[in-house]
## 1
Amino acid sequence: MREVVDRVWAMLSAGANAGATRSPFTMLQAATVGLDGGPKVRTIVLRGVSPEAGALTFHTDVRSEKVMELRKDPRISLLGCDLDAGIQIRLEGIARMVDSLDERMALWKTSRPHSLIVYRAQLVPGTPIASPEEAHRAPGGMSDSMAGFENFCLVTVDVQTIDYLDLSPNGHARAKLSRQDGAWHGGWVAP
Ligand SMILES: Cc1cc2nc3c(=O)[nH]c(=O)nc-3n(C[C@H](O)[C@H](O)[C@H](O)COP(=O)(O)O)c2cc1C
């Protein structure tokens, strides 16, 4: 199974380091347990991957609903799909909001200004507005490079299970793996 584990993390690493060329695993769908108990899913950008630690990271707004949901129930499920290759990766894990100021600051400083705009918005995500333009009003303190930093949230997911599915013409293989004591265990299952 080492080969499958390595393949999965290589695809996720490519997603996190996409740069100019987009990787199919740059955008993942992240599912949480909603405050109403129902499933909630949304797209996130995969920002970092640590195959050794079995962990990945994404950025979000601390004011968003998903953060409230994860504070209540940290279980998270992530899904990525490479349509051309016929590969699906499903992950389950435990999310934690990183408190370290240094870690958050380092990421903030190396982020492209464009990707920080959302954190500078004065309105809490999901606030009802009369028209989309209302959310675009120039937020105060834009000239301050730290404006919005207090809303910038780094989420780390400790991955506990991997469900790998290869439905390519030569594939038709599925593997289920789980992480115990820092090592991956598992095997092939019927697709
Ligand atoms: C292409 C794309 C990428 C996105 N990336 C992120 C992201 O990295 N982090 C994030 O919090 N929201 C991201 N979003 C927005 C979320 O999908 C979602 O709409 C938003 O975070 C609010 O979700 P929530 O109310 O469940 O917290 C992205 C949306 C799109 C369309």
## 2
Amino acid sequence: MRTRHSLQDQTVVIIGGSSGLGLASAQAAIHAGARVIIGSSSTDKLQQAVHSLGQQASGHPVDVLDAASIQAFFAAIPALDHLLITAAVIRPGLLLEADITALQTNLDSRFWGSVHSIRAATPRLAASGSITLTSGMVTQRPQPGKALAAVAAGAVETLAHSLVAELAPRRINVISPGPMHTPLLSGALGNDATRLQALAHTLPLKRLGEASEFAEAALFLMANPGMNGEVLHLNGGAAWA
Ligand SMILES: NC(=O)c1ccc[n+]([C@@H]2O[C@H](COP(=O)([O-])OP(=O)(O)OC[C@H]3O[C@@H](n4cnc5c(N)ncnc54)[C@H](OP(=O)(O)O)[C@@H]3O)[C@@H](O)[C@H]2O)c1
């Protein structure tokens, strides 16, 4: 019988690990016995997160908008067991009105950032290892101004399906979160508790998702040897309500 991989003494790399869903996943991975290397673009946030995570964590700066920075990030990591990418830069804007460079940033960060990261990480990734990318419920519930964010999220889902054969026996999956209570969502709603509560009230479970729930999903995809090419929807049913 094939059993769940343990994360004990495994190396888990999390790009976007200094905040929100990535930081919660780093905490959970350490709790499961892993060593964690986090990456993000702000050195201050990175240092603060590494400090809060404790001795099993280290961090290096990386900018998912810069291929050379991604290569330098992985050059400092000789071997890894699991890669989780939560970092992305979202630039909403109406297709006919927004600055085209801003719109392209959605794809440059989430899609091309994932592509560059996968290319740099895979030669160092254990054969039993995994890659987890992040998309979003926007693919199922597009809104005005979110078309390119949705396309970028959809692109990483297709990327994961499409790479299964090339990366095997390494595995690749995606988590598609709905609205989660993180600094990203709070910031997007002006750090206004009333707006956050109003959004929560529109959801079937009458609450936002918690970063710890994302972390559990991420660890499940890392540890379950049968999960491959999957998009795990984590939205409390909001996509269907
Ligand atoms: N929260 C939600 O409701 C929700 C819903 C659907 C999808 N998502 C997706 O889930 C992912 C994580 O979101 P979150 O809520 O955890 O956001 P968050 O709290 O803002 O965390 C984002 C992380 O990405 C890093 N990051 C941002 N730009 C970067 C760059 N250019 N290069 C490298 N790292 C960068 C940030 O650190 P630095 O600032 O230091 O770079 C931070 O560690 C995102 O892809 C988001 O689109 C979130």
